[in-house]
Predict the structure.
Amino acid sequence: MSDAAELQTFEHDVLVIGAGGAGLRAAIECSKLGLDTGLVSKSLLGKAHTVMAEGGMAAALGNTDRRDNWKIHFRDTMRGGKFLNVWRMAELHAKEAPDRVRELEEWGAVFDRTEDGLISQRNFGGHRFPRLAHVGDRTGLELIRTLQHYGVHQGMHAHMECKILGLLTDGERIAGALGLWREHGRFVLFKARAIIMATGGAGRCWRVTSNSWEYSGDGYALAYDVGAELMDIEFTQFHPTGMVWPPSVRGTLVTEGVRGDGGILKNNKGERFMFGYIPERFAPETADSEEEAARWLAGDKNARRPPELLTRDVVARSIRAEVLAGRGSPHGGAFLDIASRVPAEAIKRKLPSMYHQFKELAGVDITKEPMEVGPTLHYFMGGIRVDADSQMTRVPGLFACGEASAGMHGANRLGGNSLSDLIVFGRLAGVGAKEYLDRLGSTPQPDAGQIERSKREATDILNRETGANPFVVHEKLQEMMQRYVGIVRIEDELETAIDELAKLRVEAATAKAHAAPQFNAGWHEALDLSSLLTVSEAVTRAALMRRESRGAHSRIDYEGERDEWLKYNIVIRKQPDGSMDVRKEERPEAPPELAKIAHATLDQLEGGHV
Amino acid sequence: MPLMQGTKRSFRIWRGNSSGGQFKNYEIEVDTGMVVLDAVHRVQAEHATDLAVRWNCKAGKCGSCSMEINGKPRLACMNRLSDYPDGETITIQPIKTFPVIKDLVCDVSWNFKQLKRIPPLKPKPRDADGNYRMRQQDVERIQEFRKCIECFLCQDVCHVLRDHDQKERFVGPRFMIHLANLEMHPLDCDDRIPQVKNEFGSGMCNITKCCAEVCPESINLTDNGIIPIKERVVDRFYDPIMMLLRKRQSKRA
Ligand SMILES: Cc1cc2nc3c(=O)[nH]c(=O)nc-3n(C[C@H](O)[C@H](O)[C@H](O)COP(=O)(O)OP(=O)(O)OC[C@H]3O[C@@H](n4cnc5c(N)ncnc54)[C@H](O)[C@@H]3O)c2cc1C
Ligand code: SF4
Ligand code: SF4
Ligand code: FES
């Protein structure tokens, strides 16, 4: 008899892995559809990454500017994503986001209001109109708390502080997952006929990041291991404004809301430099003088947007260029100034958590002084490849949504489009899982061999006599990725990264955790290393293959967007021998109706001609 | 800001689990701008890789890193080392009200159970155009309570829970303001006041305000949330004039 029989076991129709916005929304949908739903998370409920989101969630409600509608949101998203987005996903997102936001309100979310009592919307980079439903600068907290409080009354079963170590299959189909309780270090078996992966991203591969410890890319690695594909994973977003000082908070996010509410970027000469970096494609829609930008801020509907609100890739590269040219701030960033532009009281009201964060962590009063900011690794546009309507991967019964999935954001995500992505595609993943289960015949049974292998790999770390300190290995990986697979990339550095990754893999395989399995931080750090390495390798190999610069991916040796590359996605799959297969895959033709909208001029769209 | 690059500092950290433990001393190098959580992490990486501590955001937003620092309930990620006198050993231990799992990590699951007991929002119907309308000044009242990051520091200091261990009878300050949030929610049309009194134990709170003092989100739990809710209970159950008025109003409506 195998040990599996003695394992603590839970049985659910569907297991949702990840309790951020995407996972919670998916679990709510599953529960509503009558499925027995389990929800697993590495942290306590309500602490997932989503809680940190600040600025808002994008939805074309048209409350603050009536001219907004789904078509313009869709067009902004495609242009932001440099036309590599999965067309259908961008369409679904733009169309469904407003309903999902209104639904949140019905579940208790309390957004800031407009004069006439509707949900207020704020400006953000790349969005033509003020579009972000928000609650001061703590929108993520509002989202996750609303879903959490509503969700616990829908009958789902939450399993907290449990790390999923491996997915289990029966033939090709999903059969369950093996987990590990942080609290006592024991294993747990989840039998489930469907799994929804909502594990978020993998920013912890880099040294300077806005991401928490949970962002080790487990979902990507787990799905990849059982045969799912990763797509466009080279598109890693560097948010332009992370804190750069003091060192201990380097990377911590400064919301784009600061720029949306009037903040401007300056170099050490006091120059407002973004006017010098406006890309051709955006020039017709961007202010070309400080005077026009000021009119826009004052609410003049005929003025164009300030260049500080260009897409994140553009702003991040501009800050980097200023620093390289010797015009950076004292700690290697740029100055972000809202103090001289907006009255102190308004800053405290609109950006309370930024005020608090700088005051407490950096000793800076943002109502009086500028902030020092620089690029920080923030978001994964790529991820697990899914079908646009059902969110299913190529593994039957395995679904993915939120930051764990690919396709919605193309080469670069617009701020605010993630929170709405979570609720739109979280729901669709739930619907997709239900449809799959309705068609599923026999119940798949987990393979005892897989279970044993996962358990052995995990316990080896505790049992070996000596070995590398997992914290040290992780730090080496972060330094390496920061250096060679950063905000701009070049062939020989990427090659170096591949070699370094091979060495780190050898070192990680010897990682040793000391002491007992109970809540053992070192053990969990060692367990995370395997996903961190897999994801780092995937990003590096894909970055090497994509010989162009597009969105968040910049190659010094292949500058500018290349039309031929618009035809491909980069798709990664695990080979039977364990090696990583990286391929260019031709993209399907754009649906003509959607292409027309995405390529229309604003006049055409606003005039209702498209 | 004083420059601290490379200076050494001492920490006393509680190590142990539910069956007991003791303080251990650690000495590490500290750098400018470090917060207490950074120091704990450095101890973890250099001296005690199995040291248990919770954290996520490192920016005071997730409420994971609650602990007692020099005897005061705090978020470890929001307390800079430079706030403590040079040379002073900093003592770090888990919060007291909830049972320890290991080192700095407590079992806070009781709080999650309270949440489930509280009836959720019961929203009124939408306006004819599918929207809800609320005025900013009306939502601001409860937006204050909704800032709660569920760090449970207020639960930690509330003497009803901490010293008298009355978890069976009182939900604690965090959930009192959650109840206030629901009761004052412009869209809500449920009535939880009888439960506030009978099941959630509003009478146990004697407004010492310790909870409001420790809240890292500066939520004025008592004045803005708990007292108004207690007043509603009093109105309902102990004030005959209010009772009459209310009866008449509900008849008219
Ligand atoms: C500081 C900051 C500010 C942001 N601001 C905005 C904003 O204003 N607007 C916007 O649209 N977006 C914003 N974003 C981006 C957005 O918050 C994230 O992309 C989004 O929250 C991701 O949600 P998710 O549901 O996919 O994953 P998450 O919320 O990260 O949840 C992941 C879940 O997976 C669990 N998990 C991971 N691995 C495992 C495993 N092996 N086993 C079990 N569980 C696991 C974790 O415990 C967690 O519960 C911001 C991000 C950051 C970091
Ligand atoms: S005011 Fe009430 S809830 Fe707050 S600490 Fe005192 S007794 Fe507890
Ligand atoms: S009310 Fe304040 S102290 Fe209490 S849990 Fe919420 S944030 Fe923490
Ligand atoms: S780590 Fe999130 S509050 Fe301290």
User: Anything to note?
Assistant: DSSP finds 17 helices and 18 strands in chain A. The mean pLDDT of chain A is 95. The CA atoms of residues 102 and 428 of chain A lie 17 Å apart.
